Amino acid sequence: MPEGTICNKRPVASREDLDALLADSNGKKYYAEMEELDVDAEKLWATIQKTMKSRTKTWLDICAHCGLCADSCFLYSVNERDPKQVPSYKIQSTLGEIVKKKGNVSNEFMRMCMDTAWSKCTCCNRCGSFCPYGIDMGVMFGYLRGLLHSQGFVPWELKIGSGMHRLFRAQMDVTVEEFVDTCEWMVDEALEEWPCLEIPVDKEDADIVYMINAREAKHYPEDIVEAAILFHVAGENWTMPSEGWEMTSLSMFAGDWEACKMQVETVYGAMERLRPKRMVATECGHAYRATVIEGPYWAGRPDGQPPVECLHYVEWVAEALETGKLKIDPAKRIKEPVTLQDSCNYVRNAGLRDCGRIIMKHIAEDFREMAPNKEHNYCCGGGGGFNGIGRYRKQRNVALKMKREQILATGAKFVIAPCHNCWDAIRDLEEEFEIGIRWSFLKPLLIKMLVVPEHLLPQE
């Protein structure tokens, strides 16, 4: 079968396409059609010849199969050191074979590649830190995902997510009107406690434009108002765009590079339209990576930089605490043992290793590091789209074991996770293993600890 009705090589192009996917409970029909999907070997090889750059070719050629990457991979460790979980094996047995065979591979092989690319690698890029040649399997798996997507071999949830970005420029169907209404509603809810609070929308030439994860607008609107409160107390001149506020990219997880470009150009368009001095990204690792690290290349920006200076939320919080824009009441600091989850995407992949420690210095009395930590920390267990794919839930739950052991070793029962994927994984970890922990983003913790200037308090 060259093409299924919902599992095919065509990207989502209409609301009808998206609704057909959404109507397929758990992707049952989608995966059945996938088993009959033809591989277009000619197109696959043409894509490789056009898109595979010298770095990837060199990495495939020079891998010595030494196995030093094995212990760097948490999935290898938690899966009883299965040789098929060694990063070099995983990439050579998938992408390496596609290249060797010049795209002449079977449907069954492509489905194996899909299972490997999305359930045996989170693209955390930790292996690249330990390879003596600097080979990064995470980067190559990202490329492999793109090849698989182009042939229709992509998990059902990510075909939906990528389609959302194509249609709505967000991972969820939130319209401009709904977003603005949500901001107004959240301000109204908070005015009694925080007089004069605002969420300025489309304010030009502000010092900060704040951008978020669509889940906050759709499911966690309190996160938006918490950010507003902290900007308010810090005295920031800030705004949010009515369009282009969504930084995340399920398209990146899906390997839909065209949709990645469409998404990030919408974000950059908001920056260029409003002309802020800086952008502050919400507590989301992959949103930061998609917009700040990968985005400039998707958008074809010659300097490799976004239109304005960009900060992850941990950077802004660390700066605000150090400069005194935000002051913490010493009596309200966290007294119990607490640990911190380092997100792969803004710590290992963006170098923001020190920001979390600066924050913990201000807010915690008994901060306990995970081991390893900072740029050597392990993935939460749910990155790279792993959290959201029902087909691989059992494998994802096994993957959570590494983070479980890291947390237990600290003796802390409280985990701060300034990243949506990490927050989700740690929530699910507790649900799965019941180790008795709590977890939180930074914003609600900071609000409880703030020294609030008198003029910002409600008047009797």
Automatic annotation (TrEMBL):
SUPFAM superfamilies per record? alpha-helical ferredoxin
Cysteine-rich domain spans which residues?
Answer: 338-422
Coiled coil ranges (UniProt) are: none
Q: What is this protein called?
A: Uncharacterized protein
Q: Which NCBIfam families match?
A: sulf_resp_HmcF
Q: Does the keyword Electron transport apply?
A: yes
PANTHER family in UniProt? FUMARATE REDUCTASE IRON-SULFUR SUBUNIT, HETERODISULFIDE REDUCTASE
The segment(s) forming the 4Fe-4S ferredoxin-type domain are: 60-135
Matches recorded under InterPro entries: 4Fe4S_Fe-S-bd (IPR017896), 4Fe4S_Fe_S_CS (IPR017900), Cys_rich_dom (IPR004017), Helical_ferredxn (IPR009051), HmcF (IPR054810)
Output the Gene Ontology terms for molecular function.
Answer: 4 iron, 4 sulfur cluster binding; metal ion binding; oxidoreductase activity
